[in-house]
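Lecture notes, structural biology module. Today: joint structure prediction for complexes of four components.
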Amino acid sequence: MDKTHALTAFGALSQPTRLDVLRLLIRAGDTGMAAGEIATALGARQNTMSANLGVLMQAGLIRNARQGRSIRYFADLEGLRGLLAFLMEDCCGGNPAACQPLLDTITCPS
Amino acid sequence: MDKTHALTAFGALSQPTRLDVLRLLIRAGDTGMAAGEIATALGARQNTMSANLGVLMQAGLIRNARQGRSIRYFADLEGLRGLLAFLMEDCCGGNPAACQPLLDTITCPS
DNA sequence: TCCATATATCATGAAGTATTGATATATGGC
DNA sequence: GCCATATATCAATACTTCATGATATATGGA
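The predicted structure, tokenised, for the full assembly:
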């Protein structure tokens, strides 16, 4: 994850529909969702959603796989990890003491 | 941190100069940097930088404090934490098992 | 009060981005 | 091969964002 890639990813996440898509796909987990399902679930038109899925793909935040006539999309948690690590790297590299409490509060509630 | 706030923050981070500013201020730590210093360090013009600092302020990613004639800016780690927690919340809520390895890799290298 | 320094705001033009209707491509079933 | 379904691409318009020159505001010192 270099700076250019991070910028692309942040840009992808700075649009309401796309942020919704990523959250939806994270919840969908390994099952993923077909492009059409996603569009229906979020009340977006087919071609608009296709364009937005393309942006998220480009950003490395989602993946896809054809399944019959549909194309299923999945959250790319590895891509998300890379983005967060990019921010954390800056934080920890420059100021570990101030950074640690920040990380401590980000934990799975389970 | 609601969705609207997260969108503003992601938008703020999707611009090269602003991403550089945040990284710079994170490294500067509690000392912070004056607006003019930041502009000089990143090779940006005064008013352009002022506008970009305003965007980061609006997004809750940096803070400022007047010090004499200068205004010093600081990274707002609490704001950054809120943004990351917003993403993590989605992740952990929907898929704790897949999410944990992601969190495990984000640790301070120190 | 006057001047110099430091930063913010305003108005404008240029560039990028989103959405849309229309159309194209790809897959599966008959 | 033909049709229906599913998704992607294209071209155009509207919208937003960015950087800039010019100007305004605020602070400190003489």
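Point to remember: Chain B has one domain: 3-104.
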